[in-house]
Amino acid sequence: MKVFLSQADFNTAMQITQKAVSQKSLLPILSGILLNINEESIDLYSTDLEMSIKHNIACRIENRKDSSSFVIPARLTADIVKSLPDSKVSLNVDEKNSNVKITCGQCEFEVKTMPAEDYPGFPTLQKDIVIVVDGKKLSEAVKQVIKAASKDETRPILCGILLVIEKGRLRLVATDSYRLSIRETAIGGKDVELKAIVPARCMDEVSRVCNNEEVEVGLAKNQIYFKTKSTTIVSRLIEGNFPNYQQLLPDGCEVKVKLNREGFINSLKRVSILAQNNTLVKIKIMSSSIQLMAASVDIGSAVEELEAQVDGEGMEIAFNPQFLVDGLNSISEEEVFIELNSPLRPGIIRPVKTQDFIYLIMPIRLG
Predict the structure, then answer these.
(1) CATH class assigned to 129-245
(2) Inter-residue contact 129 to 192 (CB < 8 Å)
(3) For domain 250-361, is the CATH number 3.10.150.10?
(4) C or N terminus of the chain, fewer CB within 10 Å?
(5) Which CATH code fits 2-118?
(6) Tally of CB atoms within 10 A around 274
């Protein structure tokens, strides 16, 4: 049997499904991607038993059998397909010898396959709660909050993003206990309510595949799925209680600073070159400017002053510069507010024009 498909489609499919391939499993079959050849398309499946991805691409088939499924090594095949020229690709499936020939132009690769019957089945999609959301809004919201999610697997709750849908609005919340991101946006569907802690790595993949499509979101007891026209991502939920983040949000602020976002980012990057292992940048707030300072005893120091619109008394406070940059990069507006109450209490970064995003960051105590 021969299968013909475009290199671009095949490459996209491999890059998407490869994200759920197990990197640590003792089961060799989980290092592969299952291909199921239909009448005019191929379904690609991957799973690490926590997250599963299914992606469909169109193809043309010659000498088709009733059904044909096999497992290909994920990383090797992805590297091969990525290296091919942008042209037609043919897959010559030889089930008798357990291999598939991948041909494109003058290139030909032969890859050993594994039996499909050894591969875990794709999760059954439960539909206890279902809502359709704007993929672009969901993608943008995820990209704004995901930097604040923890990567420390000893605290699994913090490795997730709290997803809440209620009263026609979507809210995403992420925190690693040093910073907190909250993004809200209107999505419609006022009669549907949904609340779940979704692994950040799942939400990251969702943000990549749902940019300009409507996304069906379904929630069951212990799993959630996100479905577009060609891709379905299913993930187990993280069990437990998300931190009570609302109690961290201050009612007001003593000092409010208005800054050009890009200028602030560039200054932070320059000054933090001298932060080195000290990992803090001091910010001195004055009447109409702020001063950024960093120093390392064995290397030297850096100081830079930025014009700012300041409302309130002066203050000196210190932050992790990379955390500041992450928060500022999550905002697309030209100007931002920094809201502070004291050198020991968390600061807030938010856009000037809209009220839909909050980035809270803990300060570093000055010696």
Answers:
(1) alpha beta
(2) yes
(3) yes
(4) C
(5) 3.10.150.10
(6) 17
